[in-house]
Specification:
Elements (H helix, E strand, L loop, with lengths): L5 E4 L3 H8 L4 E4 L5 H6 L7 E4 L9 E3 L5 E4 L4 H6 L1 H6 L1 H8 L4 H6 L2 H6 L5 H4 L38 H7 L3 E6 L2 E6 L22 E7 L6 E8 L10 E10 L2 E10 L6 E2 L1 H7 L6 H11 L12 H17 L2
Parallel strand pairs: 1-3, 2-3
Antiparallel strand pairs: 4-5, 5-8, 6-7, 6-8, 9-10, 10-11, 11-12
Helix pairs in contact: 5-9, 10-11, 11-12
The chain binds flavin-adenine dinucleotide.
Protein backbone atom coordinates (compact mmCIF):
# COMPACT_ATOMS: atom_id res chain seq x y z
CA UNK A 1 0.00 0.00 0.00
CA UNK A 2 1.21 3.52 -0.74
CA UNK A 3 1.98 5.68 2.31
CA UNK A 4 0.39 9.10 2.72
CA UNK A 5 2.24 11.98 1.10
CA UNK A 6 1.55 15.41 -0.34
CA UNK A 7 1.60 15.73 -4.11
CA UNK A 8 2.67 18.79 -6.06
CA UNK A 9 2.83 19.14 -9.82
CA UNK A 10 5.42 21.87 -10.34
CA UNK A 11 4.80 24.39 -13.12
CA UNK A 12 8.38 25.63 -13.29
CA UNK A 13 11.85 24.43 -12.44
CA UNK A 14 12.06 27.08 -9.73
CA UNK A 15 8.81 25.89 -8.15
CA UNK A 16 10.01 22.29 -8.27
CA UNK A 17 13.25 23.22 -6.53
CA UNK A 18 11.44 25.24 -3.92
CA UNK A 19 9.04 22.36 -3.22
CA UNK A 20 11.97 19.96 -3.00
CA UNK A 21 13.62 22.04 -0.28
CA UNK A 22 11.33 20.40 2.30
CA UNK A 23 12.79 17.39 4.14
CA UNK A 24 11.45 14.11 2.73
CA UNK A 25 10.40 15.57 -0.64
CA UNK A 26 11.21 13.50 -3.75
CA UNK A 27 11.32 14.23 -7.47
CA UNK A 28 8.89 12.25 -9.60
CA UNK A 29 9.43 12.07 -13.37
CA UNK A 30 7.59 9.05 -14.84
CA UNK A 31 7.07 7.55 -11.38
CA UNK A 32 7.76 4.00 -12.60
CA UNK A 33 10.52 3.44 -10.06
CA UNK A 34 9.60 5.97 -7.37
CA UNK A 35 6.06 4.70 -6.81
CA UNK A 36 7.27 1.10 -6.54
CA UNK A 37 9.76 2.18 -3.86
CA UNK A 38 7.04 4.04 -1.94
CA UNK A 39 4.65 1.10 -2.19
CA UNK A 40 7.39 -1.23 -0.88
CA UNK A 41 8.24 1.20 1.93
CA UNK A 42 11.88 1.43 0.84
CA UNK A 43 12.27 5.00 2.09
CA UNK A 44 10.22 7.76 3.68
CA UNK A 45 8.61 10.42 1.55
CA UNK A 46 6.48 13.29 2.79
CA UNK A 47 5.99 14.99 -0.58
CA UNK A 48 6.11 13.86 -4.19
CA UNK A 49 7.10 16.68 -6.51
CA UNK A 50 6.13 15.86 -10.08
CA UNK A 51 8.20 17.54 -12.78
CA UNK A 52 6.17 15.98 -15.60
CA UNK A 53 4.69 19.34 -16.69
CA UNK A 54 8.11 20.84 -17.38
CA UNK A 55 8.09 20.43 -21.14
CA UNK A 56 11.37 22.29 -21.51
CA UNK A 57 12.99 19.14 -20.06
CA UNK A 58 11.79 16.97 -22.97
CA UNK A 59 13.26 16.27 -26.37
CA UNK A 60 16.35 15.23 -28.28
CA UNK A 61 18.35 17.69 -30.38
CA UNK A 62 21.64 17.77 -32.25
CA UNK A 63 24.00 20.32 -30.72
CA UNK A 64 25.97 22.76 -32.87
CA UNK A 65 29.19 20.83 -32.34
CA UNK A 66 27.64 17.56 -33.56
CA UNK A 67 26.84 16.16 -30.12
CA UNK A 68 23.37 15.43 -28.74
CA UNK A 69 21.26 17.00 -26.01
CA UNK A 70 18.61 14.83 -24.38
CA UNK A 71 16.15 16.43 -21.97
CA UNK A 72 15.88 14.45 -18.73
CA UNK A 73 12.10 13.96 -19.13
CA UNK A 74 12.45 12.37 -22.55
CA UNK A 75 10.77 8.95 -22.50
CA UNK A 76 13.20 6.05 -22.87
CA UNK A 77 11.16 4.85 -25.88
CA UNK A 78 11.96 8.12 -27.67
CA UNK A 79 15.66 7.71 -27.02
CA UNK A 80 15.48 4.17 -28.41
CA UNK A 81 13.63 5.28 -31.56
CA UNK A 82 15.49 8.55 -32.20
CA UNK A 83 17.09 8.74 -35.65
CA UNK A 84 19.46 11.40 -34.27
CA UNK A 85 20.72 9.04 -31.57
CA UNK A 86 20.90 6.09 -33.95
CA UNK A 87 22.88 8.09 -36.49
CA UNK A 88 25.87 8.86 -34.26
CA UNK A 89 25.43 7.12 -30.88
CA UNK A 90 23.81 3.81 -31.76
CA UNK A 91 24.90 2.13 -28.51
CA UNK A 92 22.59 4.42 -26.53
CA UNK A 93 19.63 3.64 -28.76
CA UNK A 94 20.34 -0.09 -28.34
CA UNK A 95 20.60 0.28 -24.55
CA UNK A 96 17.35 2.24 -24.34
CA UNK A 97 15.55 -0.41 -26.39
CA UNK A 98 16.72 -3.06 -23.89
CA UNK A 99 15.12 -1.32 -20.90
CA UNK A 100 12.16 -3.11 -19.30
CA UNK A 101 8.97 -3.40 -21.41
CA UNK A 102 7.37 -1.11 -24.05
CA UNK A 103 4.97 0.29 -21.43
CA UNK A 104 7.81 1.14 -19.04
CA UNK A 105 9.90 2.64 -21.83
CA UNK A 106 6.99 4.95 -22.65
CA UNK A 107 6.41 5.94 -19.03
CA UNK A 108 10.00 5.97 -17.76
CA UNK A 109 12.32 8.84 -18.57
CA UNK A 110 16.03 8.89 -19.33
CA UNK A 111 16.65 11.07 -16.22
CA UNK A 112 14.72 8.63 -14.02
CA UNK A 113 16.60 5.71 -15.55
CA UNK A 114 20.02 6.98 -14.50
CA UNK A 115 18.70 8.00 -11.03
CA UNK A 116 16.70 4.82 -10.26
CA UNK A 117 17.18 2.93 -7.00
CA UNK A 118 18.85 -0.50 -6.86
CA UNK A 119 16.84 -3.65 -7.42
CA UNK A 120 18.47 -5.73 -4.66
CA UNK A 121 15.71 -7.83 -3.09
CA UNK A 122 17.00 -7.14 0.41
CA UNK A 123 16.95 -3.38 -0.20
CA UNK A 124 13.47 -3.57 -1.76
CA UNK A 125 12.27 -6.07 0.84
CA UNK A 126 11.70 -5.94 4.58
CA UNK A 127 15.35 -5.77 5.55
CA UNK A 128 16.96 -2.83 7.27
CA UNK A 129 20.08 -3.26 5.18
CA UNK A 130 23.17 -1.09 5.01
CA UNK A 131 21.75 0.94 2.11
CA UNK A 132 18.69 1.76 4.21
CA UNK A 133 20.81 2.94 7.12
CA UNK A 134 21.38 -0.44 8.80
CA UNK A 135 24.71 -2.13 9.41
CA UNK A 136 24.51 -5.27 7.28
CA UNK A 137 24.47 -6.15 3.60
CA UNK A 138 22.29 -9.26 3.68
CA UNK A 139 23.32 -10.23 0.16
CA UNK A 140 26.88 -10.95 1.23
CA UNK A 141 25.91 -14.17 3.02
CA UNK A 142 22.46 -14.56 1.46
CA UNK A 143 20.79 -14.98 -1.90
CA UNK A 144 23.36 -13.23 -4.03
CA UNK A 145 22.92 -14.72 -7.49
CA UNK A 146 22.13 -11.31 -9.01
CA UNK A 147 24.69 -9.29 -7.07
CA UNK A 148 28.03 -7.82 -8.00
CA UNK A 149 31.30 -9.46 -8.96
CA UNK A 150 33.30 -6.24 -9.33
CA UNK A 151 33.65 -3.26 -7.00
CA UNK A 152 31.77 -4.91 -4.12
CA UNK A 153 32.48 -3.15 -0.87
CA UNK A 154 30.12 -3.29 2.12
CA UNK A 155 27.07 -3.20 -0.19
CA UNK A 156 26.91 -5.70 -3.09
CA UNK A 157 24.17 -4.34 -5.34
CA UNK A 158 24.50 -4.06 -9.09
CA UNK A 159 23.52 -0.82 -10.74
CA UNK A 160 20.19 -1.52 -12.51
CA UNK A 161 20.30 0.95 -15.41
CA UNK A 162 20.87 -0.08 -19.02
CA UNK A 163 21.20 3.45 -20.36
CA UNK A 164 23.81 4.62 -17.81
CA UNK A 165 26.56 2.21 -19.03
CA UNK A 166 25.95 3.25 -22.64
CA UNK A 167 25.98 6.94 -21.67
CA UNK A 168 29.19 6.42 -19.70
CA UNK A 169 30.82 4.64 -22.65
CA UNK A 170 29.82 7.60 -24.84
CA UNK A 171 31.29 10.10 -22.37
CA UNK A 172 28.01 11.78 -21.37
CA UNK A 173 27.64 14.79 -19.09
CA UNK A 174 24.76 15.28 -16.66
CA UNK A 175 23.33 18.81 -16.35
CA UNK A 176 21.83 19.60 -12.98
CA UNK A 177 19.67 22.48 -11.80
CA UNK A 178 20.72 23.41 -8.28
CA UNK A 179 19.24 26.18 -6.12
CA UNK A 180 22.50 28.10 -6.45
CA UNK A 181 22.46 27.82 -10.26
CA UNK A 182 23.32 24.94 -12.53
CA UNK A 183 26.22 22.54 -12.59
CA UNK A 184 27.47 19.76 -14.81
CA UNK A 185 28.89 16.42 -13.74
CA UNK A 186 30.57 13.91 -16.08
CA UNK A 187 28.58 10.70 -15.91
CA UNK A 188 31.60 8.84 -14.54
CA UNK A 189 31.38 11.03 -11.42
CA UNK A 190 27.58 10.99 -11.13
CA UNK A 191 27.02 7.62 -9.45
CA UNK A 192 28.23 7.09 -5.89
CA UNK A 193 30.17 3.94 -5.04
CA UNK A 194 29.25 2.30 -1.70
CA UNK A 195 32.85 2.87 -0.59
CA UNK A 196 32.06 6.58 -0.52
CA UNK A 197 28.49 6.32 0.75
CA UNK A 198 26.43 3.11 0.76
CA UNK A 199 23.17 5.06 1.16
CA UNK A 200 23.38 7.21 -1.94
CA UNK A 201 23.15 6.29 -5.59
CA UNK A 202 24.04 9.65 -7.12
CA UNK A 203 25.77 12.90 -6.23
CA UNK A 204 22.42 14.76 -6.39
CA UNK A 205 21.43 16.78 -3.34
CA UNK A 206 17.76 16.67 -2.26
CA UNK A 207 16.68 19.74 -4.17
CA UNK A 208 18.70 19.20 -7.33
CA UNK A 209 17.10 18.13 -10.59
CA UNK A 210 18.71 16.56 -13.63
CA UNK A 211 17.69 18.77 -16.54
CA UNK A 212 19.51 17.20 -19.46
CA UNK A 213 22.18 14.81 -20.55
CA UNK A 214 24.60 15.74 -23.30
CA UNK A 215 26.80 13.59 -25.48
CA UNK A 216 29.89 15.02 -27.18
CA UNK A 217 30.28 14.88 -30.94
CA UNK A 218 31.41 11.41 -31.92
CA UNK A 219 35.15 11.13 -32.56
CA UNK A 220 36.06 10.02 -36.12
CA UNK A 221 35.50 6.31 -36.62
CA UNK A 222 33.26 5.87 -33.54
CA UNK A 223 31.28 2.65 -33.35
CA UNK A 224 29.11 1.90 -30.34
CA UNK A 225 26.91 -0.93 -29.15
CA UNK A 226 25.09 -2.31 -26.12
CA UNK A 227 24.02 -5.85 -25.38
CA UNK A 228 22.69 -7.44 -22.25
CA UNK A 229 22.01 -10.99 -21.19
CA UNK A 230 18.98 -11.57 -18.99
CA UNK A 231 17.39 -14.57 -17.38
CA UNK A 232 14.34 -14.50 -19.64
CA UNK A 233 13.29 -13.10 -22.99
CA UNK A 234 10.67 -10.65 -21.70
CA UNK A 235 11.52 -7.65 -19.50
CA UNK A 236 14.35 -8.21 -17.06
CA UNK A 237 17.39 -6.49 -15.62
CA UNK A 238 20.87 -7.37 -16.89
CA UNK A 239 22.62 -10.43 -15.52
CA UNK A 240 25.51 -9.16 -17.60
CA UNK A 241 25.75 -6.34 -20.09
CA UNK A 242 28.42 -4.52 -22.05
CA UNK A 243 28.46 -1.09 -23.65
CA UNK A 244 31.18 -0.42 -26.20
CA UNK A 245 32.18 2.92 -27.68
CA UNK A 246 35.35 2.44 -29.70
CA UNK A 247 36.90 4.78 -32.27
CA UNK A 248 38.56 2.95 -35.14
CA UNK A 249 41.16 4.10 -37.65
CA UNK A 250 40.85 1.46 -40.34
CA UNK A 251 40.79 -1.78 -38.39
CA UNK A 252 42.74 -0.41 -35.41
CA UNK A 253 41.10 0.83 -32.21
CA UNK A 254 42.48 4.29 -31.41
CA UNK A 255 40.45 5.17 -28.31
CA UNK A 256 37.30 4.21 -26.49
CA UNK A 257 35.51 2.89 -23.48
CA UNK A 258 34.18 -0.47 -22.38
CA UNK A 259 31.53 -0.36 -19.63
CA UNK A 260 29.87 -3.30 -17.90
CA UNK A 261 26.34 -3.46 -16.52
CA UNK A 262 25.05 -6.02 -14.04
CA UNK A 263 28.61 -6.28 -12.74
CA UNK A 264 29.14 -3.65 -10.04
CA UNK A 265 27.33 -1.18 -7.74
CA UNK A 266 27.90 1.54 -10.33
CA UNK A 267 28.18 1.33 -14.14
CA UNK A 268 31.64 -0.23 -14.37
CA UNK A 269 34.27 1.08 -16.74
CA UNK A 270 36.76 -1.69 -17.47
CA UNK A 271 40.04 0.07 -18.11
CA UNK A 272 41.73 -3.34 -18.16
CA UNK A 273 39.65 -4.38 -21.18
CA UNK A 274 40.11 -0.97 -22.81
CA UNK A 275 43.90 -1.25 -22.45
CA UNK A 276 43.78 -4.66 -24.07
CA UNK A 277 42.20 -3.30 -27.28
CA UNK A 278 43.38 0.31 -27.66
CA UNK A 279 46.15 0.58 -30.25
CA UNK A 280 45.36 -2.88 -31.60
CA UNK A 281 43.31 -4.64 -34.22
CA UNK A 282 40.54 -6.74 -32.73
CA UNK A 283 40.87 -10.36 -33.75
CA UNK A 284 39.91 -13.53 -31.91
CA UNK A 285 43.02 -13.42 -29.70
CA UNK A 286 42.66 -9.71 -28.78
CA UNK A 287 38.97 -10.16 -27.98
CA UNK A 288 39.69 -13.15 -25.73
CA UNK A 289 42.50 -11.27 -24.00
CA UNK A 290 40.29 -8.20 -23.40
CA UNK A 291 37.45 -10.37 -22.08
CA UNK A 292 39.82 -12.05 -19.63
CA UNK A 293 41.20 -8.64 -18.61
CA UNK A 294 37.65 -7.38 -17.92
CA UNK A 295 37.24 -10.15 -15.35
CA UNK A 296 40.76 -9.96 -13.90
CA UNK A 297 39.58 -8.38 -10.65
CA UNK A 298 36.23 -10.16 -10.43
CA UNK A 299 35.37 -11.92 -7.17
CA UNK A 300 32.34 -14.16 -7.12
CA UNK A 301 29.99 -14.37 -4.16
CA UNK A 302 28.59 -17.77 -3.21
CA UNK A 303 25.90 -17.90 -5.89
CA UNK A 304 27.03 -15.67 -8.74
CA UNK A 305 30.22 -17.31 -10.05
CA UNK A 306 28.34 -17.98 -13.31
CA UNK A 307 28.65 -14.28 -14.10
CA UNK A 308 32.40 -14.47 -14.71
CA UNK A 309 32.31 -16.81 -17.75
CA UNK A 310 29.11 -15.05 -18.87
CA UNK A 311 30.87 -11.67 -18.97
CA UNK A 312 33.91 -13.17 -20.66
CA UNK A 313 31.79 -14.63 -23.43
CA UNK A 314 29.73 -11.47 -23.81
CA UNK A 315 32.70 -9.07 -23.98
CA UNK A 316 34.51 -11.34 -26.43
CA UNK A 317 31.47 -11.68 -28.71
CA UNK A 318 30.67 -7.97 -28.65
CA UNK A 319 34.25 -6.96 -29.44
CA UNK A 320 34.35 -9.32 -32.42
CA UNK A 321 30.95 -8.04 -33.57
CA UNK A 322 31.91 -4.35 -33.38
CA UNK A 323 35.15 -5.03 -35.23
CA UNK A 324 33.28 -7.00 -37.88
CA UNK A 325 35.79 -9.79 -37.26
C1 LIG B 1 9.12 -4.06 -13.94
C2 LIG B 1 10.29 -3.16 -14.20
C3 LIG B 1 11.33 -3.59 -15.02
C4 LIG B 1 12.41 -2.75 -15.28
N1 LIG B 1 13.44 -3.19 -16.08
C5 LIG B 1 14.48 -2.35 -16.34
C6 LIG B 1 15.55 -2.76 -17.19
O1 LIG B 1 15.58 -3.86 -17.72
N2 LIG B 1 16.56 -1.87 -17.40
C7 LIG B 1 16.58 -0.63 -16.83
O2 LIG B 1 17.50 0.14 -17.08
N3 LIG B 1 15.57 -0.23 -16.02
C8 LIG B 1 14.55 -1.05 -15.78
N4 LIG B 1 13.53 -0.65 -14.97
C9 LIG B 1 13.62 0.65 -14.33
C10 LIG B 1 12.92 1.67 -15.18
O3 LIG B 1 13.62 1.85 -16.34
C11 LIG B 1 12.86 2.91 -14.33
O4 LIG B 1 11.77 2.68 -13.47
C12 LIG B 1 12.64 4.18 -15.13
O5 LIG B 1 13.69 4.40 -16.02
C13 LIG B 1 12.58 5.33 -14.16
O6 LIG B 1 12.15 6.47 -14.88
P1 LIG B 1 10.99 7.37 -14.30
O7 LIG B 1 10.94 8.57 -15.14
O8 LIG B 1 9.72 6.58 -14.17
O9 LIG B 1 11.60 7.70 -12.88
P2 LIG B 1 10.88 7.95 -11.50
O10 LIG B 1 10.29 6.70 -10.99
O11 LIG B 1 10.02 9.14 -11.59
O12 LIG B 1 12.17 8.32 -10.64
C14 LIG B 1 13.17 7.35 -10.35
C15 LIG B 1 14.15 7.97 -9.36
O13 LIG B 1 14.89 9.00 -9.98
C16 LIG B 1 14.64 10.27 -9.37
N5 LIG B 1 14.50 11.19 -10.50
C17 LIG B 1 13.74 11.01 -11.61
N6 LIG B 1 13.93 12.01 -12.48
C18 LIG B 1 14.81 12.85 -11.91
C19 LIG B 1 15.40 14.08 -12.32
N7 LIG B 1 15.13 14.64 -13.51
N8 LIG B 1 16.26 14.69 -11.48
C20 LIG B 1 16.55 14.15 -10.28
N9 LIG B 1 16.03 12.98 -9.83
C21 LIG B 1 15.19 12.33 -10.64
C22 LIG B 1 13.37 10.08 -8.55
O14 LIG B 1 13.36 10.92 -7.41
C23 LIG B 1 13.46 8.61 -8.17
O15 LIG B 1 14.29 8.42 -7.05
C24 LIG B 1 12.43 -1.46 -14.71
C25 LIG B 1 11.38 -1.00 -13.89
C26 LIG B 1 10.31 -1.86 -13.63
C27 LIG B 1 9.21 -1.35 -12.76
Amino acid sequence: MLPQFNYVRAQSLEEAQQQLSTDGARVCAGGSDLLGCLRDDVFDCSKVVSISSLNQLRGIARTRDGGIRIGSLTPIAEVAASATVQETHAGLSQAASEVASPQLRNQGTIGGNICQKPRCWYYRGEFHCLRKGGTTCYALAGENQYHCILGGYRCYIVHPSDTAPALLALNATVHIAAPSGSRTVPLDEFHVHPRDDPQRETVLQGNEIVTEITLPAPPPGLRSSYRKVRARGSWDFALAGVALALAFNGDQVVSGRIVLSGAAPVPWRSREAENAVIGRRIDAATAREAAAAAMEDATALKRNAYKIPLFKGLVEQQLLAIAGA
